[in-house]
Design goal:
This protein has one domain: Serine Threonine Protein Phosphatase 5, Tetratricopeptide repeat (Alpha Horseshoe). The protein is mostly helical and 135 residues long. Helices cover 59% and strands 0% of the residues. The chain has helices at residues 16-25, 34-38, 49-59, 64-71, 76-85, 92-95, 99-107, 111-115, 118-134.
């Protein structure tokens, strides 16, 4: 019997049981709810944010369109946490594919990105990717 991944979406910010069930279901089964899962990264202080970030990072290339959507959007806090919790956990060769978005944030931040220190986080991710790719 196939499990509907929508039934496993977290119900609250401490819903580690549903997060574990999503991780166990894995990719590509969770593909239809990838963006819904990423919404739980909007606050990195929530107990489920870090495990979700690690899980999304482990998916690799299929998560890039979702992260790109966040990075080109207008929620600066969400951008910060996507970079911190997902991109910095990615294999550098995968994360490098979002270099244009990271460079724009790092070197030409909006006032909101600067205020939320998204530019600082983007520069740190770029540096990490450069170190990882040269190893």
């Amino acid at each position: 019997m196939e499990v509907d991944p929508r039934s496993l979406l977290p119900r609250h910010r401490s819903d580690v049981e549903h997060v574990k069930a999503l991780v166990d279901l894995g990719y590509p089964a969770i593909a239809p709810v990838l963006r819904d899962i990423a919404e739980w990264l909007q606050d990195g202080n929530w107990p489920i944010s870090r495990p979700i970030g690690r899980f999304l990072a482990s998916i690799g290339e299929p998560v890039l369109p979702t992260i790109r959507e966040v990075l080109t959007g207008d929620d600066d806090v969400w951008k910060y946490w996507c970079i911190d919790l997902v991109m910095r956990e990615m294999v550098p060769q995968i994360g490098e594919q979002l270099r244009p978005e990271l460079e724009r944030i790092a070197y030409y931040p909006t006032p909101g990105e600067r205020m939320e220190e998204v530019d600082v986080e983007a520069r740190a991710a770029l540096k990490q990717f450069e170190q990882g790719c040269s190893s």
